[in-house]
From TrEMBL:
Keyword Protein biosynthesis: yes
Span of domain Cysteinyl-tRNA synthetase class Ia DALR: 360-422
UniProt organism field: Xiamenia xianingshaonis
Protein known as: Cysteine--tRNA ligase
Entry's cofactor comment: Binds 1 zinc ion per subunit.
Length: 501
């Protein structure tokens, strides 16, 4: 039984999908006026792991994520840059999709854009007006918070203790506090200012408020109620409280059956902010860090806890992931170099350990998607595999057990969205020191800039030198590689090299 922490219940609850075998999931997408930063990336990666896990457990998941492509921030940026809001939105929508794919976040099943869903929003606003939950003032439409007694149920806030939290500017730039019936009320529809994107509506030309977008799009694409609504913890109030109030007040039905929220990301133990100078864009981070390493680092903290990002933690994550990749390379190599020898393995024990790892992984992930614990399970298994198989040459009768171990590691990491490539050597190459290129140029006549190709060229040069009994060159290659942190091992099948840093 999967259990998850439900923000609204403020406790872990059993997860029962509304329709057997299916999950409808909505995660608020970005407002596209800039590249996304690491904190945004963390939220999207966390929910990608939730989705991948549910799919792996057999659920057919419909994952909806909106693009907020009309908003004050987009309009402001467009004005600053002297271009249209649509151009700004299109550029950063494309960048967002690129960034998500770069960190192996699966595309949503449906990715609606706010500007293409205006009729659904107008319909919902109209329903709220018709049912007395909303009212119009000069082209603006506001949600009447006090018309909906459950307001505050998600965030645990009491309406009578709230101040006028929804400080919004009207289209003419004046404060709205004096126009609303109650300072708590918030905008569903905003009358248009000249030059801004605007759509026709029963209340004149205007555009939707941010909160109504998600209520309308989740309802349209998932139907109400749906299983899981997710987002960063900063969205609980007011965004999700408002989404929920709008949707439920209009239909008199449920909205999200469960609410899940991801923790924030800090850099070097400080809140990430432009003023502290530690604000990091995902695409900047990816210039120096492999996406698998970034995901690995994020998996090491539970999705609801604050995550501390630092160079030290990145290095640790790279080293830990390297150990897993190394074990996979060893297993792959063993399977490709089976010998007719007595079995060196206790294959039954290896199979048992694999089964145990899969079971414990599921127990950890079933417990509110506890990825750090599940990662620990994989790590323990990798340690066992290294002890049992290591870089041994195996016999034909070992193949099923070794294959099982390999598949267990690769599959469990893939559920995390960390793909461990299966080529025997290539994967660690991103971590190879750049000096290997110079060494290959000196000793192997290599002139490219691919570290893996440079290592291959050096090994080939060494093999040639040994064949020609040119021990001086062969030793120079070996000493050069060892000096850079490589370990070379000669086997009957040729030299194997691993990078230990
Ligand atoms: Zn939303």
């Amino acid at each position: 039984m999967i259990r998850l922490y439900d923000t609204k219940v403020r406790d872990k609850v059993d997860f029962n999908s509304l329709e057997r075998g299916k999950v409808g999931m909505y995660v608020c997408g970005p407002t596209v006026y800039n590249y996304i930063h690491l904190g945004n990336a963390r939220t999207f990666i966390s929910f990608d792991v939730v989705r991948r896990y549910l799919e792996w457990r057999g659920f057919d998941v419909t994952f909806v994520q909106n693009i907020t492509d009309v908003d004050d921030k987009i309009i402001n940026k467009a004005n600053e840059e002297g271009r249209s809001a649509a151009e700004v939105a299109a550029e950063y929508t494309e960048a967002f999709i690129e960034d998500m794919r770069a960190v192996n976040v699966q595309d949503p099943t449906i990715r609606p854009k706010a500007t293409e869903e205006i009729p659904a929003m107008i319909e919902l606003v109209q329903e709220l007006v018709d049912t007395g939950h909303a009212y119009e003032v000069d082209g603006d439409v506001y949600f009447s918070v006090r018309s909906y007694p459950e307001y505050g149920e998600l965030s645990g806030r009491n309406v009578d203790e709230m101040e006028g939290g929804h400080r919004e500017l009207r289209a003419d730039g004046k404060g709205v506090e004096d126009r609303k019936r109650d300072p708590l009320d918030f905008a569903l529809w905003k009358a248009a200012k000249p030059g801004e994107p605007a759509w026709e509506s029963p209340w004149g030309m205007g555009r939707p408020g941010w909160h109504i977008e998600c209520s309308a799009m989740s309802r349209k694409y998932l139907g109400l109620p749906f299983d899981i609504h997710g987002g960063g913890a900063d969205l609980v109030f007011p965004h999700h409280e408002n989404e929920s109030a709008q949707a439920k007040a209009a239909c008199g039905c449920g909205f999200a059956n469960h609410w899940m929220h991801g923790g924030m990301l800090q850099v070097n133990s400080e809140k990430m902010s432009k003023s502290l100078g530690n604000f990091m864009l995902l695409r900047e981070a990816l210039k120096t860090t492999r996406p698998e390493v970034l995901r690995f680092l994020m998996l090491q903290t539970h999705y609801r806890s604050p995550l501390d990002f630092s160079d030290e933690r990145l290095d640790e994550a790279a080293a830990s992931l390297g150990r897993i990749e190394n074990a996979v390379r060893n297993l792959k190599w063993a399977l490709e170099n089976v010998q007719d020898i007595p079995s060196p393995l206790d294959t039954r024990k290896l199979m048992d350990l694999g089964r145990e790892a899969r079971t414990n992984y599921i127990l950890a992930m079933d417990d509110d998607f506890n990825a750090p614990r599940a990662l620990g399970v994989v790590f323990d298994f990798v340690t066992d595999v290294n002890t049992m198989v290591g870089d041994k040459t195996i016999s034909l009768s070992d193949v099923p057990a070794v294959k099982d171990a390999l598949e267990t590691i690769v599959t469990l990491m893939a559920v995390f969205g960390v793909e461990i490539a299966l080529d025997a050597q290539g994967e660690g190459a991103a971590d190879y020191p750049a000096e290997v290129l110079g060494l290959a140029a000196d000793l192997a006549g290599y002139s490219g800039d691919d570290a893996q190709a440079a290592v291959d060229a050096l090994l080939a040069a060494r093999a040639d030198a040994r064949a020609a009994k040119d021990w001086g060159t062969a030793d120079a290659v070996r000493d050069g590689l060892v000096g850079l942190g490589f370990v070379i091992e000669d086997t009957p099948q040729g030299a194997r090299v691993t990078y230990e840093g």
